[in-house]
Design goal:
The chain is of the alpha+beta class and 305 residues long. The chain is built from 7 helices and 19 strands. It has 3 domains: 48 residues, Membrane-bound Lytic Murein Transglycosylase D, Chain A (Roll); 139 residues, L,D-transpeptidase catalytic domain-like (Beta Barrel), CATH 2.40.440.10; 66 residues, no CATH class. Helix 6 crosses helix 7.
């Protein structure tokens, strides 16, 4: 019986061939293109409830619908959280796609994304227009940045005050009763702007007359980076697909402005366009679409890993 021997050159060649085969197999298990897939922001953690907190105030602060927050903790909105309770929080979202340094407000998602320095600098939960008083869509530029603004009440809101039998206000000076809060970022969308609020529990709701409200500390952070002439977009994307290099994520919101969007069809369309469909578990995709919780959820098929 003769021993089989190989020259050093053959060993090196065989090793290189094995590496190449492994690389091909790895590439075959990865999506061909994820250029249009969004990045995942937010996190998961355990929150210790403080005195005075409610499902609404916690949800407004972290950017999760109160009903979803309660349900994910095996609770209902009828039973308020108590001081000292431990709540599981998952506020992961798929960030709107980067196009340039700009502000991007996604209405169904109730999130504002600030791209600055060719990267996502910050994201904030926001309140947007009511379905009967929607936030307008489209591109815009920043036309004003003000501190301690006076609210010049639009005629349409004055008329609403009149119909409701309330005192009709034409101007509200700066101060604790000014609905704009401490800062105002005017947009080239009529009377619509990004501003603070004296009603923090309204954040992450469809609650405004078209404007975009932020928490006091969030608008204070944002104005430090925004100037007149900066660009932005208001978009309407109730379905978003993301990828973190290992998992496919799907985030689905209700079509709150009744734009006639099929959430299911849109989910599968985006998975196809991003090259991620082969990695998605169909049952998980259908469940996320059905529940429409508004949180980014991993839908990867474990068999494809």
């Amino acid at each position: 019986m003769h021993a089989v021997t190989s020259s050093p050159g053959k060993v090196v060649l065989l090793h290189a061939l094995l590496i190449a085969i492994g690389a091909i197999a790895l590439c075959a298990s990865r999506p061909s293109s994820t250029a249009d897939a969004g990045t995942i922001v937010g996190d998961r953690w355990v929150h210790l409830v403080s005195a005075g907190e409610t499902w609404g105030t916690i949800g407004a602060r972290v950017g999760v619908a109160p009903a979803v927050l309660a349900a994910r903790n095996q609770r209902t909105l009828r039973v308020p959280p108590r001081s000292g309770d431990l709540l599981a929080i998952d506020n992961r979202h798929v960030a709107a796609r980067y196009e340039r340094d700009e502000l991007v407000i996604n209405v169904p998602q109730r999130m504002l994304f600030h791209y600055w320095g060719s990267a996502l600098r910050a994201q904030y939960p926001v309140a947007v227009g009511r379905p009967d008083w929607p936030t307008p869509f489209g591109g815009f530029t920043v036309v004003a940045v003000e501190t301690d603004p006076t609210w010049d009440v639009p005629l349409s809101i004055q008329e609403e005050m009149r119909r409701a039998g309330k005192p009709v206000l034409k101007k509200v000076p700066p101060g604790r009763t000014n609905p704009l809060g401490q800062y105002w970022i005017g947009l080239s969308l009529g009377s619509v702007g990004v501003h603070g609020t004296i009603a923090p529990s309204s954040i992450y709701e469809f609650a405004t007359h078209g404007c975009i409200r932020l928490h006091r500390e969030d608008i204070a952070d944002l104005v430090g980076y925004v100037g007149v002439g900066d660009p932005g977009r208001v978009i309407y994307e109730p379905v978003l697909v993301g990828y973190d290099g290992a998992d496919v994520f799907l985030e689905v919101h209700k079509d709150s402005y009744h734009q006639g969007i099929s959430l299911r069809a849109r989910a599968w369309q985006l998975l196809e366009e991003t090259g991620l469909r082969a990695l998605a578990d169909p049952e998980l995709v259908e469940r996320v679409v059905r529940d429409a919780e508004g949180v980014a959820i991993a839908v990867s098929d474990a068999r494809e890993r």
